[in-house]
Structures are given as structure tokens and as C-alpha cells.
Amino acid sequence: MPQKQDQPLTGFENLDLSDEIMRAVAKMGFTQATPVQEKTIPIMMEGHDVIAIAPTGTGKTCAFGIPMLEYISLTDTRIQELVLAPTRELAQQIGDEMTKLAAFIPEVRIAVLYGGQPISKQLNQLKRKPQIIVATPGRMLDHMQRGTARLDAVHTLVIDEADEMLKMGFVKDVCRIIEAIPPQRQFVMFSATTNQDVLTISWKYQHDPVEITIPATQENKPRIAQYVIPTERQIKQEHLQYLLDSNVYNRVMIFTNTKDMCRRLSERLNKLGYQTEALHGDIPQSKRNQVMNGFKRGKFPILVCTDVAARGIDVFDVEAVINYDLPNENEYYLHRIGRTGRARRHGVAFTLLCFTERVRLDEILKYMDAQPTYLHFDDMGILRDQDDKPFFENI
Ligand code: ADP
Ligand code: MG
Description:
The protein is α/β, with parallel strands linked by helices. 36% of the residues lie in helices and 18% in strands. Strands 3-4-2-5-6-1-7 form a 7-stranded parallel β-sheet, with helices on both faces. Strands 10-11-9-12-13-8-14 form a 7-stranded parallel β-sheet, with helices on both faces. Helix 2 (35-45) runs parallel beside helix 3. The longest helix is centred in the first third of the chain and has 14 residues, at 88-101. It is globular. The structure holds adenosine-5'-diphosphate and magnesium ion (MG). Magnesium ion binds at residues 60-61, 160, 312. Adenosine-5'-diphosphate binds at residues 30, 32-34, 37, 54, 56-62, 314, 316, 342-343.
């Protein structure tokens, strides 16, 4: 998609970055800083505490990853910087993105620590004396208690997806980690939304934080076409197959509400000849990584998942998100559809809606101020838009 020329976005060259980072950013294919990067990078580089609220998919990882890498002392072998993330997948992804950013700083060592992975593997990572750690709170505490990771030389702490982290009941763990870090550290929080817990942590532990809010404007809002398809329970899977059979989307995420449904739907689709994998909380971590990586690399086109995969995970070019079940929580609708239309690409989201769920959907749409387009199947089983035109050209 061509960039609009009249949008005065800052190039990375105005941000006073090192050659190594400039080269990495160029290699990653970024031409201009996103608004959250443009605002956060200089303030973090000045050493301020920050609380940044920005919609999903706006490039928050690099917004903190770049200043973190600029401020590392390569000769110091202690842990200097820590990122906390709510889920294993997200921690892994942040580690990957920061590794790319560090492509031209070979002395940087990043360790990613999360539960469900053998401690021994992580001990090996820690023996390499990483300067940067990306971790989930539980596993971080684990290492602190074992004495395998010390945080007393940390000068920068970042909490990503702070709202989610605190909502997931990590408040106590997070506080214990913060308190193990020297008080004069820089403390930065990133979040898609604010809530009371986020504000409390900020009030308790941040020093004069600079608040950065990036509204969900037309420019940085993911461009996601949202469609709702009324259906019924007995024919929902048939309607799902219709969408898959359109052969328009090569990488699709299908969301279900329960692990059971996730597993069964994936199995049923595979029996019918679709290539899918299931991703939910009961799948062992090593397998989850394998599935996620396989999907990212395009080894199979359809990922059937629960909300484990909804938050923060960035898969390059998911073309369509399908809500097979309507999410139970309003916010999840946004996180799910946010898997597509990332970083100014176009995306499409379908919600298969049973009659009984209509009130719930209205609540969700009110919450997120969205107006989706309603589609319908005609008597011949053809999907049509509001003007009765077939939705897919060749089906
Ligand atoms: P968020 O944390 O805000 O949800 P991410 O950090 O996961 O967003 O970034 C979303 C996607 O945008 C990633 O694929 C990332 O590589 C890409 N991205 C980040 N910064 C830029 C940029 N300046 N230009 C283009 N793409 C970018
Ligand atoms: Mg993020």
C-alpha cells in the first residue's frame, strides 16, 4: 500500500539514533516512525519514566526496544534491562523483534524467560550473561528466587501490555519484581488501555511519568473491514467453510471461546481437507511455539485458536480473522480483530453471529464504536452484501 505523501510522519533520521539501529530499522523495512515511536523514543532516551497508551498494532515494541538498545552498556555483563510481558508468546515475540533491532550490535545478548520451558535451557541463556531479559512475571520471580538472575543492576524496566498483565492477576508478582530493582531505575509502561490497576502501579512506582496517549485515529487505526454474518449453530461450520472456500485469504485465524471447541473444530476441518492447527492453553509450550512459528512461516494457512493468541501477538499479514464464537469480553473483540490490518495494512474480520448473541454484539460494537457491515446468505447459499451483490466474485 503506498504511503500517503501528505502525512508528515517523522523519519527515523530525526530521532538521533545510532548507525547500528538505523541500519536495523532499514533492514526491517521501516521507512517512517509510527506516532507512538516518534513520541516515546526521544522521551525514553532522555531517561524519563513513561506511561504510553496506544492502540494495538502501532509499533509499541520498537518504541521501547530502540531506546533500550541505545542505552545498553556492552561491556557490562550484568542484567541491565528487563521487559515484562503477560504471555509466553508475547515475550517470545518481543525477544524476536529486539533481536532483529540488534542485528548490527552483535555484543547484545537477549534472554527470553517464560514458564513451561525447561529451566535448564534458560540457565544456558543466563550463563551467556544477557544484558536484556524479556520475561513473564512468574518465571522471572522463579529465577530471582533461585538466584539465577539478579536485578540489582537493572536501569530500565518496561512493562508491556500493562493492563492485561495486571488484569491477569500478576499484580503481586509485578510489584515484587519492581521492588527488587534499584529505585532510581527508569520505569516505562505500555498499554492499550488504562485501568485502575495500571494507574495505581504508576502512582506507586513511577517518578513524574510522562504520559503519552496515541488516539486510535484514522491514520494509525488498523484498517480492518468488519463483517457480521448472521448464522445458526447447526450451520455455523458450513458458513465458516464457505469463507475458507472463497480462497481469497491465505492466512486466517479462527477464534473460538473454549479449548474444547478449538480442538474439535480444528480436527473437523482437517478431516474435511483443510490444513489447520489448534492453539490453546492446554497445548504444551514447546508445541505452542512450534505451531505459532509454523503459522508465521506459512507452513499451514489456518490457525484455530482461543484468546491465548489474541493479545499482542503479531503475525505478519494475517489476511482474515474469523470470530467463530463471539468473544465473552468486549475488549477481546478488538484484540482478536487486531491480529489483522497490522501496521497500516488492510485486514478483514468476520463474525459469525447466532441469533442469541445479537445483544452481546451490540454491546461490543458500542464499546468500540464500530459499525460493521452485515452480510447474509441467500436461499441458494450465496453470501451477499447489503446491496445483494455476491460478496466473493468467484465462488
Ligand atoms: P503493538 O505492540 O503496538 O501492538 P507491534 O510492536 O507488535 O505493535 O508492531 C506491529 C507490527 O508493526 C510489527 O510487525 C512491527 O514489525 C511493525 N512495525 C513496527 N514499527 C514499524 C514502522 N515504523 N513502520 C512499519 N512497520 C512497523
Ligand atoms: Mg505490543
